[in-house]
Amino acid sequence: MNSYCKQAGPRVGLCVMAMALMAALPSICAASTSASVTAQTFGGTTTSSVTDSHVLYGAAGQVVQTDALASTFEVGQVSKATAHAYAAEGILQASVATNAFTTGLATDTGRGQSYATARWDDSLTINAGSILNGSKGYVTAQINVSGSYSGLTGLPTAVDSAEHFEQVKILGTGIDATSTSSAYGCGGWSLCDYEDVATWGVNSSFHNIPVVIALKIPVTFGYVTNLTYVLDLTDLAWTHSLIGGTGISAVAFADYAHTMAWGGITGVYDASGALLSSFTISSASGFNYLNAVAVPEPEGFALLLAGLGLLTVVATLSEKRLTGGPGHMRK
């Protein structure tokens, strides 16, 4: 288990579930897509909990998408969570959102947490003629990333506390990144962003996901090269109040429904670094890796946010960011 999973507190369950979801996904094959989501909410006074979880697998060229929604209500707390994942060759989309609120009417803990993982696998073959086939080379390409994540807590008191956590992780063939191991929860992933903010002051963050991800993919001309790309999101909203408190809220979201998309091949090179002008490319899925993907507009996540009552919160977070208030927003 990585170092992040060893940390004490409400975040531990996030690691266990996220690692289990990744283990459930299929290994590299000729071409496939997969999408998995889990939404969980927990109460404290009655130890109530709700879990909604789905995993879908697609064959070559097949689009898969799925959603999850959970909510828990008690006298002392209300918690909600939602997750969305979409996968196709060349496009990955995912979104998660949670909120929690404790009332102070009873000693209680509220927690919402959600996970979404989208993945595509494919096999790429580059033929460069009888002279080069069988020799080593490499392909340069790019992936375009667009999304945002943020969170917010209410004002703490001596008996009211809260935490929000958001994490975005990307894994992909040809991504050159070695710095994520220094950040807890990011080990083993090519790129990672996270933000953890607690009212008791245990705050931390790590960011190394760029808007454009440069790829350098090793190939053997005339032979199959396996490709794998994964977008994984996690979030948490946690609150706790003792009886007689004023109550406190927390909200967290990561919206990458605006896509992690293939940006096209920018060059094919032999082992010496010479740019090739004559080659052919084929893939098991039939996807054309030479060209960038036309990104579809997301539709479902706004509806999920509306169901959670988070649209107003997201708008507030954006406003606070523009005016210098708390909360972190990417692009």
Helix share of residues? 10-25%
Number of strands: 15
Radius of gyration: 21 Å
In the predicted model, the low-confidence regions spanning at least 5 consecutive residues are 1-10, 12-29, 311-331
Shape: elongated
Distance between the termini: 31 Å
- Major sheet summary line: 8 strands, antiparallel
* Helix vs. strand class: mainly beta
- Note the run of SSEs as H and E: HEEEEEEEEEEEEEEEHH
Average pLDDT confidence is 81
Structure annotation, total helices: 3
Number of domains: 1
Proportion of residues in β-strands: over 45%
What attributes does this structure have?
15 strands, 331 residues, mainly beta, disordered C terminus, 7-stranded antiparallel β-sheet, 8-stranded antiparallel β-sheet
